[in-house]
């Protein structure tokens, strides 16, 4: 037991608790005060460099500051911090439908122009044959041969322009004015969740790794010419398009996650 000027302390027990007894004289009497105290030792690791900086001598205007003033001291920062506006991720459904309609209209226009050029060359070749004197018998044989090919006779080579079920005409089912256009729809993908900064060249580099591209259409705002967040990718064959879906659907691109799916065929 320790004694110090009317104060007595016992040794701490196994739980770290000790008794402190004090005798106090007050109003002509002596009072005994007993306290239970528990000692707790806390270990705190410090950095020598931090402690050295804290012990540095103050200078300049800071030398006259008190500890209370330093707790509320604020310094004005002159650093310029650029703040970027949040990118638009959500796509307006009405705008998406307009852009989709524009994509299919342009595809149909391109197909029609190619068919017109093909028809011009066909008519020109026909006129040249007439001028060199193709007989009526040869023309009749050619017509009969074309009819035989259109009917799908076995053992005969049928060119693509004459393939199809019987009764679909000389150009076959699905051909003619919209035949090549329907083939484009079979290998067309629709890509969602693109950033505003994406360009058609970026999509060509990305999707061109999966196969030969026929066309890339990126929906853009008519005023800012920025991306609306979606695009259409057309391949020459459906296998390459499927490969692009397997590889790029859910792929992270420009801090966003792309969604790639088949484009809905136009009726």
Automatic annotation (TrEMBL):
Q: Does the keyword RNA-binding apply?
A: yes
Cellular component aspect of the GO annotation: eukaryotic 43S preinitiation complex; eukaryotic 48S preinitiation complex; eukaryotic translation initiation factor 3 complex
Q: Which InterPro entries does the record cross-reference, listed alphabetically?
A: eIF3_g (IPR017334), eIF3g_N (IPR024675), eIF3G_RRM (IPR034240), Nucleotide-bd_a/b_plait_sf (IPR012677), RBD_domain_sf (IPR035979), RRM_dom (IPR000504)
Which domain of life does the protein's organism represent? Eukaryota
Keywords of the record: Cytoplasm, Initiation factor, Protein biosynthesis, RNA-binding
In alphabetical order, the GO MF annotations are:
RNA binding; translation initiation factor activity
Query: Where in the cell does this protein reside?
Result: Cytoplasm
Assembly: Component of the eukaryotic translation initiation factor 3 (eIF-3) complex.
Q: Which family does it belong to?
A: Belongs to the eIF-3 subunit G family.
Q: What is this protein called?
A: Eukaryotic translation initiation factor 3 subunit G
